[in-house]
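Hypothesis: this fold can be encoded by more than one sequence.
Test: take the structure tokens below, design a sequence, compare later.
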């Protein structure tokens, strides 16, 4: 295995394992892993599948696996840790990354790339966006459960990697409006917690109006705050983002017809927040709903629905709980209507 790989995946879980696994073989990929994943991948190798029938198995010995940040040296580093681990990843990378390294944050939330940029002066740090779902179905088995193209902030340093990602079946769309893209993705990620609290696969949850009405409340609040602050939201769906809450509130049969793309999800796919709760990990709720609450605070406003969702997920982190859509909707509606 090469002494200095072409590409480092920093944080090998669902997204890192899947992206790195698809790139493996086309370029020299090194995976920075934690102990548990090291054992899993050494023993079982890596299995990659997608909803369109793609399948690949990489044997353990063929994987370049490292546990220490000291080995995270490559011209291209993909950061794929959860948001709560970004400060540590940034500190660790700051010690080892060469000055000409390109770092792409393929994380959700609005602030991970910013945080990495501040900690990695001189290096090029770009925000990326993964539109599709990846679930670790079994240890070391990463499944892409929905579709979409990766997006990355447009930059000259990105150009040389575009053919590589395209050859791996992961085409990247370079974007000049990445902050607006991240806000659009955040609107979808406001469903992560609702999906986790529902205990249902994403497709079943989104097929039911009760859950969609909960999401519509959270999205409506976020959209109002973006508008108030004059922050644009990219149009990633056929309908403009401001119409999303209305779309979500349609009756099930109509929604299934009008928004069939939103339901084109593998029947087993679940949000990454659901995965966190299952694994007993701290979720990214602060980086997702917390971003909405933070922006509201900047203009002296509240975001009571998103704030209440944070509290409910915190409770679920401490003690597993399954909600019904009726109860959650009641809970969020009463948060929305409570006087300040
Ligand atoms: N899963 C999905 O469908 C999608 C996820 N995303 C976003 O991608 C990002 C990654 O999510 P996801 O892949 O689901 O998360 P996972 O928790 O599955 O993977 C993150 C991995 O990084 C490891 N890790 C954390 N810190 C370090 C470190 N310092 N050194 C080495 N390894 C480390 C974690 O280990 P450990 O578990 O031991 O803590 C974990 O295995 C998140 O921001 C998420 O919101 C975006 C789109 C889709
Ligand atoms: C793709 C999506 C919106 C849902 O799986 C996601 O980003 C996540 O689970 O974190």
């Amino acid at each position: 295995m090469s002494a200095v790989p072409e590409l480092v995946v920093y944080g090998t879980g669902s997204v890192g394992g899947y992206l790195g696994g698809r790139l493996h073989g086309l370029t020299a990929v090194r995976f920075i892993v934690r102990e548990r994943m090291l054992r899993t991948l050494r023993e079982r190798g890596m299995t990659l599948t997608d909803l369109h029938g793609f399948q690949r198995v990489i044997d353990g010995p063929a994987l370049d696996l490292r546990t220490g940040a000291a080995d995270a040296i490559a011209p291209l580093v993909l950061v794929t840790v959860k948001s709560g681990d970004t400060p540590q990843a940034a500190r660790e990378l700051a010690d080892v990354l060469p000055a000409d390294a390109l770092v792409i944050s393929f994380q959700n939330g609005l602030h991970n790339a910013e945080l990495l940029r501040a900690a990695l002066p001189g290096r090029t740090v770009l925000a990326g966006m993964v539109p599709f779902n990846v679930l670790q179905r079994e240890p070391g088995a990463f499944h892409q459960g929905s579709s979409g193209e990766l997006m990355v902030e447009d930059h000259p340093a990105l150009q040389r990697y575009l053919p590589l990602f395209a050859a791996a079946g992961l085409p990247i769309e370079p974007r000049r409006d990445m902050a607006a893209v991240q806000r659009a993705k955040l609107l979808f990620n406001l469903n992560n917690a609702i999906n986790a609290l529902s205990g249902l696969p994403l497709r079943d949850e989104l097929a039911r109006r009760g859950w969609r009405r909960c999401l519509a409340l959270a999205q409506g609040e976020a959209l109002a705050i973006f508008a108030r602050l004059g922050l644009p939201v990219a149009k990633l769906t056929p309908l403009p983002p401001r119409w999303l809450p209305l779309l979500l509130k349609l009756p099930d049969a109509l929604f299934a017809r009008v928004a069939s793309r939103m339901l084109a999800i593998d029947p087993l796919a679940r949000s990454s927040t659901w995965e966190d709760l299952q694994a007993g990990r701290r979720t990214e709720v602060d980086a997702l709903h917390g971003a909405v609450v933070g922006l509201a605070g900047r203009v002296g406003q509240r975001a009571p629905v998103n704030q209440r969702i944070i509290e409910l997920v915190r409770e679920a982190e401490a003690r597993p709980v399954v909600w019904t859509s009726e109860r959650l909707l009641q809970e969020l509606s009463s948060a929305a209507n409570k006087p300040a």
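The longest helix spans residues 178-198. The pocket of ketopantoate (ligand 2) is lined by residues 108, 132-133, 188-189, 192, 271-272 (CB under 6 Å).
Hypothesis status: open.
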